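Readers outside the structure-tokenisation community will struggle with the description of the input data as it stands. Showing the layout once, in full, would remove most of the difficulty. For illustration, here is how one protein appears when written out as sequence plus structure tokens:
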Amino acid sequence: MSVPKDSPGKPVPPDRPTPPVPPDSLSRRRLLTTAAAASLAAACEPAAPPPPVLAFVGPDPAQAHSLRDPAFRNGPVTRELRTQVAIVGGGVAGLSAAWRLRKAGLRDFHLVELEPELGGTARGGLLPRSPHPLGAHYLPSPHPECAALELLLTELGLIIGRDHHGRAEYLPSAIVSAPSERHQVGLLWHEGLYPDRDETPDEAAQWARWREHLLALDARRGADGRRLFRLPVDLSSAELRHLDSISLARYLDDLGLNSWRLRWAVDYATRDDYGCTAAQTSAFAGLHHFLARGLEDNRDGHTLTAPDGNARLIRGLATLVGGTLELHNFSTKLRTRLHADAILWAAPRFVLPHVLPPGRDPLAANTLSYAPWLVASVELRARPRGVGAPLAWDNVPVAPDAAQRSLGYVLATHGEDRSVRDPGAVITYYEPLPGDDAAALSAQRTRLLSTSLADWSEHVRAALVAMHPNIAREIAQIHVTRWGHAMIRPVPGLLFGDALATARAPIARVRPCAADITGLPLFEEAFYAGVRAAEAALTQLGHAATSIIES
């Protein structure tokens, strides 16, 4: 039997001829059928989603730059305040200083913050779908030597007990769940961050030698009995401090390690922690990244995070501190003169000359250099997809091309139950803007602040499409954060040179204590700098307070 095209599935007996159809009728029928099919196809085709909602969020460059205007700084004072200790800066260092003062029983302190929110680069943001980080997004569980930091994490409720070996046990919901990391080569995703697929025997041997080298350094102690690399950094043994004078890239050259895979993995680590390439990072700082918390192979460590990253730690610190925390709203034009016996400068060190009397700062201008960063949080209508390893917390593209600077994205909604129907996701994209010298960094900073919201959003969209070709239609919102001076750059010669010694030296009653005066842009360094400054202020004021910092 035959089935005529115009008869939907009804067979016609072969001995009965099909009645002729007039030409006009046939044309009408085909026209109607074609129109119906087209309508059905159009109905099945998903409608184009609305364009993404775009916004700049986070620090306002214009507000921060107003401190450089003498007319603004010297405007009329509308209020006078008196306190024993003034803390300038509400980031990790400032809040840690306030926490230490409060633990010592001092209540007469006042903390001021330029921005409308506490946290500095550890701040968080909020999209309709989920909170997300604006900057720092995790804290590795501290080495057992860091008892003061473990004390803080206990008070924050993140350390909930000790095992039979005395090791800290962490709140399960604070630990990144598996899978934690994946990397992408081409369009295929693989577990972990080292791109080992299709590596040659020589490349595999080089990676093994690098790991063995790190293991040996991790096991060594200096002649002073200290570990070679510690937190805070100035407690590290003096034995290898000379490595601060050369770059990490030079150090790898001297070891004969030239595999592009290994060099990519090391360069990724320095860009992620310091906003610098391996060629721009001190060899001591680079090794410190791998070893200060204990080599991963040798410790039972965790990565602590939350949907909004380290903002969870900021909220907890603010709650523990209580007391007087003041956020300045520049739109009111109100100015407060704060009188204090001790001033803890927990704001970036490069801002201090703009508030001191002229000529009082012994640190030469531009002695310290800072890495600018682009961060963008993106709300998606569906979770990112991909071929190979499943979606992880940290998702990183790999390319041998050194021009690639994207660090990929972290998944703010990683801890959610994925057994439920796909409810979308929020991801945060990270891209440092490194430069070899002051001129290159200035150009990057100018680019960061002068590029339009539309252009930066398109830049982020294109980077995500390169990882996920079909992701563009899933983008509902893009929130862009610009950090012009996100983090101190531990360039060769910085950590143990004269510049940092000058940067952290007190100026009359003012004691600098942000993370940048330590040379390493880490939560732990900011914490210890704030605690040390608070203990110095307590001593200055005659308060008996035993140091809680490990020797």
Notes: Confidence is low (pLDDT under 50) at residues 1-43.
